[in-house]
Design brief:
about 170 residues, mainly alpha, 8 helices, globular
Length: about 170
């Protein structure tokens, strides 16, 4: 826990950190992470958590989608117009300059995209814009609020989530 708090102190000084907890199953990595994000040291920090699942390896971005749904406070029962309103509202409240990333976030969160330019993009370009959208969102959020992102069970992540973890480090 002391080492995690040291890394947190570095982040508080403006030096973003990526920390990995690696150990045998059952030794308490999840418990340590749980204690860390609920410790007094992270009071006032935005904490975003996501878990990879054994069945999620075939579904692109699954942990990221879960994380973003929590971030935007999206509930399962909400219709697409409400989901779109939440994403647009929170994103533009964070920074109006993030408006260009809306189509990528809408598509990622399975919301209809009105932007005709998005519809004509090749898959590779959509992927690149999706990664850039997530990176810009995380970077801007971390500039406004101290931010901890916690991904658990990374050994089950898909290639797209792995690409996200690479761009946000």
């Amino acid at each position: 826990m002391d080492e995690l708090h040291q890394w947190l102190a570095e982040a508080e000084r403006g030096h973003g950190q990526a920390v990995g907890l690696v150990a045998e199953p059952g030794v308490g990595k999840s418990r340590l992470a749980w204690e860390f994000v609920r410790s007094p040291r992270t009071d006032g920090w935005e904490v975003l958590q996501a878990e990879a699942a054994s069945y999620g390896g075939a579904t692109g971005y699954l942990p990221v989608i879960g994380l973003l749904k929590k971030y935007f406070a999206i509930e399962a029962h909400e219709d697409t117009s409400e989901v779109q309103r939440k994403i647009r509202g929170k994103l533009l409240d964070l920074d109006q300059a993030l408006e260009p990333v809306l189509p990528a976030l809408f598509a990622l969160l399975d919301v209809p995209v009105d932007d005709e330019r998005w519809q004509w993009l090749e898959p590779r370009e959509r992927r690149q814009r999706t990664l850039e959208a997530i990176k810009r969102l995380v970077l801007r959020e971390s500039q406004v609020h101290p931010l901890v992102m916690l991904f658990e069970d990374l050994h089950w992540i898909d290639a797209e989530t792995q690409a996200v973890s690479a761009v946000i480090q």
